[in-house]
Write a structure and sequence with these properties.
Helices cover about 75% and strands about 5% of the residues. It is mostly helical and about 180 residues long.
Length: about 180
Amino acid sequence: MAETQTQIQPRQRAYQYYTELPSWGKGIIAAGGVLIIWKVVKKIKDDDEKRRQEEESKDEKKELSLLEKDLKESIKKLPLTYVKSQYQTWANQLEEYMQYAGTDKTGILSIIKKMKNSSDVMQLALSFGKRKYLSNFGVSVGWKTLGQFFAIEDSWLEYLVYDINNTLKNKGIKYRF
């Protein structure tokens, strides 16, 4: 029983100290408590976001690795139509067509129409790799693959992915975004 009384005494002293504080002092303590809670919640949220981004990054690296493997197999049957530097040029143009406001759907489709086979499309996606996607307001949405760029743009432009895949289908190309 002596232990319980010694445990209660510090609590009673803290409570008595708090009740004797002026109202501005109680406000400072309350604000400090809110600040501590905010910092803890922010730390948990930031850690969760970092973990989520690391998982996404692993998935995207795996996706690009599988794409590279598929491309090597595809090239055996369907060789690339253009030199690799041309795919890089087109990848850069696609990025320009999709950054910020005013996506150039005609420009995107003009590049897609130049693809002759699945190997060409895979090389284009591989040349694009992962790039920093900037929203309409210049805010970074993160590093995205070509397919992810198309999916984001599809939310702004109706039927972008449908039109891309339809163009590929009409050319007899099996690859889809």
